[in-house]
Design goal:
Strand order of the largest sheet: 1-2-4-3-5-13
Distance between the termini: 23 Å
Order of helices and strands: HHHEEEHEHEEEEHEEEHEHHEEHHH
Helix content: 25-40%
Radius of gyration: 24 Å
Length: 422
């Protein structure tokens, strides 16, 4: 995807004079930024347990002159909000408010194999550099750095939306570490679901005929879903595991559970996919004679990502100037994120930034692997996080300085949102 702006859009770039300051600020702070990313990488904490990471980041943010920091933001213990305002407003006034979002939760067993330590590092780099530039500018506005826990599970941003965290935000952005630079990754909507079958326990040898095998129901459902996947659209996805299969081989299981995710590109197609998966589970219950089937889903639903092309055009402009090489988005889907929910609340972007050393291994290392976890702790990743942070900071400044850009972004958002959520 290219988001190049038209030749008549030169007036959209008004922050050039702060470009050197922004990238010099990040260069000067690189040791501090690397320390933040390395410390989080070495001490992974899972969703809603990111106590040490949140403290590390907020302690650092509190050292920035003129910045106020709120911990336990909106009642989430590991969320935070750091704010800087040009000429603090009166209580009922509203300045243009731009938010850069940080993530810092890790995966079970493989730690920061999604590189959230670098997402936090890039977000802090953006905030520090944008505040430094804003202090030198005449722009009136507010820059916030929002710490958003529990992206891998727990729907941290969804919880923050529900608590009103984005009510006064005009624009939002974050970046995500990856094996390539990409402007608009095709993030799908996702439901996190479970299915629980209830059968009847019995001795597997002495009285199998007295039992109702709930594990057979799980296996049948798994096979039904596997067959259904052959006829799904490329951007419709189902992933599943049997998370509870019984206690001992000689006891017919009376309760089993399957955890599964379903993904689709929008709400309408998600409804279609839910109907197909539900039929697979109901057929398994009927075939095995199970006494009960409980389907639980939608409590941690992540929306598909609506990327604002106008904002991406600014990000692309400065990214190309500083050596980024943007790859085209692949067909189909590329995962999911609760940033998708944010993206239909306010104009947003969520580009990917490459953390692989260009001079090193050329085979792409996929996220959520041990190999990517290792990359997220390498020097190249920290430098690329600084580059992505600086590129975001340029976008922050353009949004603060340029009213016509803000209007263009918001107009696109309202038009695209209508079609996107229909």
């Amino acid at each position: 995807m290219s988001c190049e702006l038209s030749s008549s859009s030169a007036s959209l770039f008004q922050a050039d004079k702060y470009e050197t300051l922004i990238f010099d600020t990040i260069k000067a702070k690189q040791t501090d930024l690397t320390n933040l990313g390395e410390t989080i990488w070495n001490d992974p904490e899972e969703a809603l347990e990111e106590v040490r990471a949140a403290k590390l980041l907020t302690d650092y943010l509190q050292t920035i002159d003129g910045v106020s920091v709120e911990c336990n933001f909106k009642g989430l213990p590991t969320a935070f909000l750091a704010s800087w305002t040009k000429n603090p407003v009166q209580k009922d006034e509203h300045y243009t408010t731009v938010a850069v979002l940080c993530e810092y939760d890790a995966l079970p067993e493989i730690g920061h194999a999604c590189g959230h330590n670098l997402i936090a590092e890039a977000g802090i780099a953006c905030f520090v550099a944008a505040v430094a530039a804003a202090k030198q500018s005449g722009a009136e506005g507010k820059i916030v750095c929002m710490g958003t826990p529990a992206e891998e599970s727990g729907a941290g941003k969804v919880k923050l939306i529900q608590k009103g965290a984005f009510k006064d935000i005009d624009f939002a952005m974050m970046v995500h570490s990856a094996p390539v630079d990409m402007l608009a990754p095709p993030m799908l909507a996702v439901d996190h679901c479970s299915a629980t079958f209830t059968g009847k326990a019995s001795h597997a040898s002495a009285g199998p005929f007295d039992g109702i095998n709930a594990l057979d129901a799980c296996v049948s459902a798994y096979n039904n879903l596997s067959m259904a996947r052959q006829q799904l659209k490329p951007n419709h996805q189902i992933h599943m595991i049997i998370s509870k299969g019984g206690s001992k081989p000689n006891v017919i299981p009376d309760t089993t559970k399957m955890d599964y995710y379903i993904r689709a590109p929008n709400g309408k197609e998600m409804v279609e996919l839910r109907e197909k998966t539900t039929a697979c589970f109901q057929a398994a219950k009927l075939a095995t004679g199970c006494l009960d089937l409980q389907l639980d889903g939608g409590h941690e639903s992540y929306g598909a990502l609506l990327s604002n092309k106008t904002m991406l055009g600014i990000y692309e402009h400065y990214g190309l100037k500083h050596g980024m090489h943007f790859h085209a988005a692949p067909a189909g889907g590329g995962g999911s994120t609760d940033m998708g929910n944010v993206s239909v609340e306010v104009p947003s972007i969520h580009p990917l930034f490459n953390i692989q050393d260009p001079a090193g291994e050329q085979t792409l290392t996929m996220i959520h692997t041990v190999g990517f976890q290792a990359l997220a702790g390498q020097p190249a990743g920290h430098l690329r996080a600084g580059l992505a942070g600086g590129t975001m900071a340029m976008l922050v400044m353009e949004l603060l300085l340029n009213e016509s850009l803000r209007k263009k972004v918001k107009k696109e958002f309202e038009e695209e949102k209508r079609h996107f959520i229909a």
